[in-house]
Design brief:
The protein is mostly helical. 69% of the residues lie in helices and 0% in strands. It is built from ten helices and no strands.
Length: 206
């Protein structure tokens, strides 16, 4: 139910009188909000969607047993977090048509394993700087999450390792259209670092 809070839909309807899903990519997530409504509202939606993952994953604190048992706590947090991600993708408050779950997944990872989450943010920002494709940045950050858990940090908890693989697969599956557009050269770029790109273009022209 927490994951189902359709932040982008409520913002677009409440402040602009439109349904964000009727514009841009048709996705009710932070990236499409950024493109359609601007950076301020895109950032707001991203932060709230992240908080959904953090809050849902942290609900274990309401159950005293899980405060002392580390492995059971981790397993419960994964279950709670996945429920919030599914709620974001299929929101019961918005006709089961939501976003792709990347921000909520990050919030979930931040609550469970902050170091891994921050490492994934580093991958996301690097790819975004190099390409300006939010979709590609999200995909590679999701795949890197699996790599960090399985190989870099070598997490021993089996369910956590399975979860890492599910995250990577889920992000790739929800970005199939984006992958197709990237391969065709039709994927839109976010309007950041545009001055850098203009300087590069002027140098080429010279």
């Amino acid at each position: 139910m927490i994951g189902s809070v359709p932040t982008a839909v409520w913002v677009s309807k409440g402040f602009f009188g439109i349904d964000i899903r009727d514009y841009g990519s048709g996705n009710a997530g932070a990236t499409n909000t950024y493109r359609v409504l601007g950076s301020k509202w895109g950032t707001f939606v991203m932060i709230v969607d992240m908080l959904k993952g953090v809050i849902a994953t942290s609900l274990y604190i309401l159950l005293p047993y899980y405060l002392t048992d580390q492995w059971d706590r981790t397993n419960l947090m994964i279950g709670l977090g996945l429920a919030s991600v599914l709620g974001h993708i299929f929101p019961i408050w918005a006709g089961f048509k939501g976003g792709k779950g990347v921000a909520t997944l990050f919030g979930m990872a931040l609550a469970i394993q902050p170091i891994v989450a921050v490492s994934c943010v580093g991958v996301f920002l690097l790819v975004l700087y190099l390409t300006r494709f939010v979709s590609l940045s999200s995909i590679l950050a999701g795949v890197s999450f699996m790599v960090f858990i399985l190989f870099v940090f070598n997490e021993k908890e089996t369910l956590y390792r399975v979860f890492a693989v599910i995250v990577a697969l889920l992000i790739v599956l929800t970005h199939q259209k984006n992958i197709s557009r990237i391969l065709k050269g039709t994927e839109s770029k976010v309007p950041i670092l545009k001055y850098r790109d203009r300087r590069r273009q002027r140098k080429r022209n010279v």
